[in-house]
Amino acid sequence: MPKARHTRGAPALRATLSGGGWLPHGYRLAPHTHDQGQLVYAAAGTLATTTDRGTWVAPAHRVTWTPPGFAHSHRFYGRTDARLLAVPIDLCGELVDHPSVFGVSPLLREAVLALTDERPENRPGARRRLLAVVVDELCDTPEQSLHLPEPGDDRLRAVTDLLHADPGRPATLADLGRAAGANERTLSRLFHTELGMSFHQWRTTLRIHHALAHLTGGMSVTDTAMACGWSNPSSFIDAFSSVVGQTPGTYQADLRESRTLP
């Protein structure tokens, strides 16, 4: 059985670069920047990190990475055991130079938990050596970004704003284009050239983001599928599994298990 983790609460995390604390569902950390890099891991719960390049979501077993100098904000879904870990400038060059999400191995999880617990450093340099292990683990881990890029083009932004307002909206790109006053062919091209994905891929990622929040909050798989625009639970399960790497039911089971750990 893992040892009890002693962490701080939400107020202590507002102005810290490193530490841990239990945060309530929907808790937000307002936009801010750091001179160092930062890793944020939800040992229980789900988090979203947003920059001007879009939003990255980290469900169970993933950690967000924000390099130095990027203005970013965080939002937490479900009661979240949030772990914030600073990465010194001299180690940041080992990692990618853009915000991203990485998978969390058992070794990486335990190292992050140890570094964010409130415990004294008994041997000089011990924290630095453990932090080097974290960086080494991330260097050997492929990116697993649930990244939702945001457009700069006003025509495309008008369409994505409609979808943000109602992710389950069953409209086609032509329907959305008429509502936004833009041509379907032009919008399709902009999705590929500006966002690097098709309209269908972007909307699916948006819906998965919302589905993760609903599932973390305890909504059933069927109700989540309907709320996020899937015509039936089976198609939702297939899409969720292909993006997240596990079924919605397994994801919720993992969340329940993580909440029972001390």
From TrEMBL:
Query: Looking at the record's lineage, which domain of life comes first?
Result: Bacteria
Any one Pfam family match given in the protein's UniProt record, by short name: HTH_18
Annotated protein name in UniProt: HTH-type transcriptional regulator RipA
Give the Gene Ontology MF terms in alphabetical order. DNA-binding transcription factor activity; sequence-specific DNA binding
PANTHER family attached to this UniProt entry: HTH-TYPE TRANSCRIPTIONAL REGULATOR NIMR (PTHR11019:SF199)
Specify the HTH araC/xylS-type domain's residue ranges.
157-254
Which UniProt keyword terms apply here?
DNA-binding, Repressor, Transcription, Transcription regulation
Q: Which organism is it from?
A: Actinacidiphila reveromycinica
Q: Give the matching InterPro entries.
A: AraC-bd (IPR003313), Homeodomain-like_sf (IPR009057), HTH_AraC (IPR018060), RmlC-like_jellyroll (IPR014710), RmlC_Cupin_sf (IPR011051)
